[in-house]
TrEMBL record:
Residues 49-158 form the CS domain. Belongs to the small heat shock protein (HSP20) family. Residues 45-160 form the SHSP domain. It comes from the Archaea. This is HSP20 family protein.
């Protein structure tokens, strides 16, 4: 008897795709929970948004944040420091046209599209905002945040 395709192949593929999407959503939820500002956290259920891995290290005189950003150019990234919260955004688009003659390729499977992310991390201490630096090398964004020196001044408080 000739080999017949399994009628449940499409259902299995659907469950695998759903599982991948739920894993992506869970990573997005974890990333949003990193923000400890007490405000209403918003959850992004869009599958076009994914959260890259982020490490925050205390290296003595500075904090170092490392983020995996493969395929992002420096123009695709935006970094902001607001108080003790570091925000990193990235957005890239796929090429609209491919091929030398201007015709669109016939994709058999296409999963890459517009991708964006937004990560925020609460820093443990204040940093010197003017001395923060960032570099991208081989798809890894490194942000160096020198710690602010604690003030040695003390203030006497009178008791009423």
């Amino acid at each position: 008897m000739a080999d017949r395709s399994d009628p449940f192949d499409s259902i299995t593929e659907l469950f695998e795709r759903l599982s991948r999407q739920l894993e992506t959503a869970a990573r997005s939820w974890d990333a949003e929970m990193d923000v400890r500002d007490g405000g209403g956290s918003r959850f992004d259920f869009s599958m076009t948004h994914s959260s890259p891995s982020l490490d925050l290290a205390d290296e003595g005189e500075e904090f170092v944040v490392t983020v995996d950003v493969p395929g992002y150019d420096t123009e695709d990234l935006e970094i902001r420091l607001s108080g003790e919260t570091l925000s990193i955004r990235g957005e890239r688009e796929h090429e609209a046209e491919r091929g030398g003659d201007g015709e669109h390729e016939q994709y058999i499977r296409r999963e890459r599209a517009v991708q964006s992310f937004n990560r925020r991390v609460q820093l443990p201490d204040s940093v010197e905002a003017d001395d923060v630096s960032a570099t991208v090398n081989n798809g890894i964004l490194t942000v160096q945040l020198p710690k602010r020196e604690p003030a040695d001044e003390s203030t006497s408080i009178d008791i009423e």
